[in-house]
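Is 2-acetamido-2-deoxy-beta-D-glucopyranose placement plausible here? Inputs below.
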Amino acid sequence: MSTPRAIIPLWILLLLSLSPPTLQSNPTVCIIGTGIGGSSVAHFLRQYSPDPTRILMFERNGVVGGRMATVTISGETFEAGASILHPKNYHVLNYTKLLTLKRREPSSSDSFGIWNGKKFLLKTISARSWKVPIVEKMVSLVNSVYLFVRYGFSLLKMQTFVDDTVERFLNYYQAVEGRPVFESVDEMLEWAGLFNLTTRTLEDQLIDVKISPLLMQELITVITRINYGQSIYMSGLAGAVSLAGSGGGLWAVEGGNWQMAAGLINSSDVELHLHEEIESISYLGEYYELNSTKGSSYACEVTVVATPLDELDIHFSPPISIPKRKLQHTHATFVRGVLNPVYFGMDDVSKIPDLVGTIEDPDLPFTSISVLKQHSEKDFTYKIFSRKPMADALLDNIFRVRKETIQINWGAYPHYKAPEVFAPFVLDGQHLYYVNAFENAASTMETSAVAAENVARLILSRFFSKASLSSSNLKSSTSDEEHLHQDL
Ligand SMILES: Cc1cc2nc3c(=O)[nH]c(=O)nc-3n(C[C@H](O)[C@H](O)[C@H](O)COP(=O)(O)OP(=O)(O)OC[C@H]3O[C@@H](n4cnc5c(N)ncnc54)[C@H](O)[C@@H]3O)c2cc1C
Ligand SMILES: *[C@@H]1O[C@H](CO)[C@@H](O)[C@H](O)[C@H]1NC(C)=O
Ligand SMILES: *[C@@H]1O[C@H](CO)[C@@H](O)[C@H](O)[C@H]1NC(C)=O
Ligand SMILES: *[C@@H]1O[C@H](CO)[C@@H](O)[C@H](O)[C@H]1NC(C)=O
Ligand SMILES: *[C@@H]1O[C@H](CO)[C@@H](O)[C@H](O)[C@H]1NC(C)=O
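Reply from A.M.:
I modeled the complex. Tokens:
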């Protein structure tokens, strides 16, 4: 690397040693969106770079966290959006340590049933009434045997398929020294051996590993419906991720997952603009001009979009083009009250499983109903997921008592369709970045953090390495020369 140094004209070195352009001495990075994606970009920029960059963050809401949000019903607070984390979600695990947040087990469902609209196809038995560890263990064993009798070795094949996918994903935690910075989602997935999973449906992948149709139509369908509101015709990678989200060791942040975003923003020396929606992003040659609903303009050398663009109408100049993508809407309905056992063909509410999953049938008005908390024998808080809003008349049918109801319509995650076509991480070939391009692979808090870490490294390698010309990045000197020529 010492020979090329001689080729660099002396005047360039002189120019660089003189006062560098103000643009590069104290650049501003603007991040749109304060979910786990945006806050992770800020965090990793600070972690990987000592440069005194200004970081501005914009959030249209009055709170940070985005799809990590809580809902308060009858005075008690629950996760309204993203709720569970996997034991191998290492970035978010690190966040909880860094921010000294407490972890908790998610509100566990003691019993589980698969409802087809007329009857339960499957119902595990509950250990709750005994409260004796030995009995609980036995009950759990009986349930395992029961599931095994119904689904056989397909259960093990499913586990192998999930473990294999998780194993490949762990590549993204390799030390930065040996891990490339990825310019595109395709390249990023290819490198970990995950790309093929996005090119075919989950059903096709499961047929490949010889999983029985019964397991697919029942348990696996129930899981993809709960986690992504979609069927086994969704793409394979997101499907595998949703199956991983149904295993053991799951956790959540005590007091709300949104605190991870709040803590990362607080610890990353960020200028936070709440209640400020960005309406337009215009590239003016050396920087982007961001205009907000407050009538303010901001000049940013680097701009990061950390929210799905599919349902937004931010005006881009020059225009950008990304593949069309539909968001899957999930209606989350929270009810304080008591279910109506008659609706489920039962004589007592205690016989209804804590988690009611459903199979794929267009006549079913909901995807799942789960108990978030049992307050007393006849007083519960429930969460219902559905693809369409739950009408009052329908809720009156399903519930015997309904003291309070809150409905949230989430533009929840992409509608996964194989083969997936990915938007670029760099939207304009310059310094406009898009974290949520990765959501077509899978949408979770951790995958957002993984995509954000890569985008932070991409920013540092594409923008900041130019500012400090050292022997290690002489390769990029040609583009520096171009910039200098433009300036002169
Ligand atoms: C019901 C539901 C259940 C889920 N369950 C899980 C789960 O159990 N586990 C899991 O890991 N994941 C789950 N997810 C997925 C998870 O929530 C997302 O993958 C993740 O939170 C996405 O984070 P993000 O930062 O990319 O986007 P977001 O959290 O959506 O953040 C984007 C932010 O940008 C803001 N914004 C948008 N436009 C503008 C603008 N023009 N100007 C300023 N601000 C703007 C938005 O208000 C928002 O705050 C679930 C999602 C939903 C909806
Ligand atoms: C988590 O933090 C530890 C200690 O700071 C670090 O060694 C490790 O690499 C981090 N893990 C990830 C996945 O970033
Ligand atoms: C992905 O599919 C291609 C083409 O079928 C194949 O050559 C390649 O080996 C596959 N990669 C992985 C990691 O399975
Ligand atoms: C913000 O960070 C500071 C230290 O940097 C810490 O003392 C404070 O408790 C944090 N506040 C929140 C709300 O996390
Ligand atoms: C943004 O605001 C500036 C200053 O008010 C204005 O000159 C510019 O035309 C605006 N850009 C767009 C795209 O509206």
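Short version: The longest strand covers residues 399-414.
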